[in-house]
Design goal:
Structural class: alpha/beta
Low-confidence stretches: 1-5
Order of helices and strands: HHHHEHEHEHEHHEHHEEHEHEH
Largest sheet: 7 strands, parallel
Mean pLDDT: 91
Strand order of the largest sheet: 1-9-8-5-2-3-4
Number of helices: 14
Radius of gyration: 25 Å
Number of domains: 2
Helix content: 40-55%
Length: 325
Amino acid sequence: MAVTANGAAAPVYSDAQLIVAARMYYIDEMSQAEIGKTLGVSQAKVSRMLGLARQTGIVQISVAEYRPRSEELEAALVKRFKLRDAIVVRRLESQSIMELRTTIGYFAAPTVSTWVPSGATVAVAGGRTLRALAERMEPSQPTKGITVIQAMGSIDETTGSYDALEIGRRLATRWSGSFLALNTPAILEDAQVCRRLSEVDQVRKTLDRLNAATVAMVGIGNLQNSVFRERNALKTADVNKLTKAGAVGEIVGRFYDEEGRECDTPFKNRVIGVQLDALRRMKSVIGVVAGSDRTAALRAAIRGKILKSLVLDDAAAISLLESPS
C-alpha cells in the first residue's frame, strides 16, 4: 500500500474516479469544491486526484504552438546591419510598455544566457528592459571565472532595481562570479572633479577592468526616453544643449550623434563609465530595448560599431529595418 511522507496510508483512486474528476474540472469547468460535493470527497482530495490524473497521463495538457520570436526579422536585422545576433520578440496585442519589457525578458533570456562564456568579464549597464532580461537570465551550462562589472556610475543617490549596480550584482550571484562596483555618480557636475575621482586608485582600477571587458549588456536611450530623463538627472536645458550638439542617443550616460560618435559637449568629460571606444573593441555588445521610439539611437549605435547584437521587440525591429541606411 502506498504511504505518505509521514507514514500514513495514502488514498488509492481508480482510473475511473480520476477520469471523472478530471472531466468535471477540465471539460465541464466545475470548481474543485463542486466536484468534491458531487463525488463525496473533500476539496483537498479532489486536488490530489487531479494531480494524480496529470502524473499518470490521464490528463495530458497541450498548448497551441506559438512562436514568440520572429526569425524572419532576426535574420533581416543580422543581414542588413551585419550583426552577430538578433533576438526579436513579438509584442502581444494591447501590451503596455512595462508588460512588453517583461515579455522580452522572458523569451530572450535563455538565448542571451548562452552568450556569456566561462571566463568572461561582463560590463553591465542600467536600463528598464535590461533589468527584465537580466532577471530571467541564468547559466545554461556550468561556467566559471565570470566577472561582472558595473558599467556606469549611479544615476543618483537612490539605487533602483534597474540600476547597473543592482542588475550587475544579481547576475554575478546567479553565475557564482565576482562583482566589481563602480562607486561613483554616473555624471559629475564638474569635469575637473570627474577627472580627479577617476584617478582615485579604487576607481581607476575598476575603470581599467571595465574598459577591457569582453562582453557588455547595455540599454539604449534618447534625449526624450532614458533613465536619466526619467530620474531628472537630465534637465530640459541639458536636452537643448545636447540636441544642438547633434545627440540622437545615449548609452551608459554617453551621448552620441547619428554616426555613433560621442558628442563634444561638457557631458563628455563628466561621465564615469565604460568608454564608447572600449565598447567598439569588445567582441560582444548586446543592446537591449523595448519600443520603436529609439530607432535613430539604435541606427547610430550600429553605424558607429558600438552594438554587435540586439534584443528588441518586433515593432522596434521593423522601424529599424525601414529606416534609411
